[in-house]
Amino acid sequence: MSSTKAFTFLPLGAIIQKFVVNGKNIVQGFPSAELYKQYNAPYFGETIGRIANRVSKAKINDLNGKSYQLPVNNGPNSLHGGNLGWGKREFEGPSTVDRDGKEATFFKYISKDGEEGYPGTVEVRVWYVQAREEVDGAQQEVLYIEYEAELVGDEVEETAINMTNHR
């Protein structure tokens, strides 16, 4: 792996803040975590969850034998995990770890039962693995993202998760 880091991450939302190519940052975003907190309605670089995209009428029906009301933040719907989805939360990290024999940047977050209306306590894990690879005969910086979400609480039997990164 190259000793030069092409990527910069923030604990807030495990955000991808920079991806430098030929000396230029190609990721949209802000220069500080404070600005992300103030202005990040576009969700630049955030880890989106518990549910990416929209939940119709901001309600999960018939999960664990009941319904769950979520925050309404997109017309009549709930968008990207609610008002304070995972992209607005402080993750533990970054830390450098081994992931399948490669150096990775690791973040972790505990989402408590009832956070933004979602059932169950969930541990979220995010790994970013930087690599230099040959693509069509040229060396390029590549970023791999791996996610895990584990229901760790005993409050419910199941929960809803659909996470992604908002680049």
Could you spell the SSE succession in H and E letters? EEEHEEEEEEEEEE
Q: So how many helices?
A: 1
Percent of residues in helices comes to: under 10%
CATH class: Mainly Beta
Task: Give a quick summary of the entry.
The chain has 167 residues and is mainly beta.
Properties at a glance:
167 residues; mainly beta; Beta-galactosidase, Chain A, domain 5; four-stranded antiparallel β-sheet; three-stranded antiparallel β-sheet; 1 helix; 13 strands; 4% helix; globular
Structure description:
The mean pLDDT is 93. This protein starts with 6 loop residues before the first strand and ends with a strand. The relative contact order is 0.22. It is mainly beta. The radius of gyration is 17 Å and the shape is globular. It is built from one helix and 13 strands; from the N terminus they run E-E-E-H-E-E-E-E-E-E-E-E-E-E. Helices cover 4% and strands 47% of the residues. The chain has a single domain, classed as Beta-galactosidase, Chain A, domain 5 (Distorted Sandwich), CATH 2.70.98.10.
Helix and strand arrangement:
Layout: E1 7-10, E2 15-21, E3 24-25, H1 33-39, E4 46-48, E5 54-55, E6 59-63, E7 66-69, E8 78-79, E9 92-99, E10 102-111, E11 122-135, E12 138-151, E13 164-166
Antiparallel strand pairs: 1-2, 2-3, 4-13, 5-8, 6-7, 9-10, 10-11, 11-12
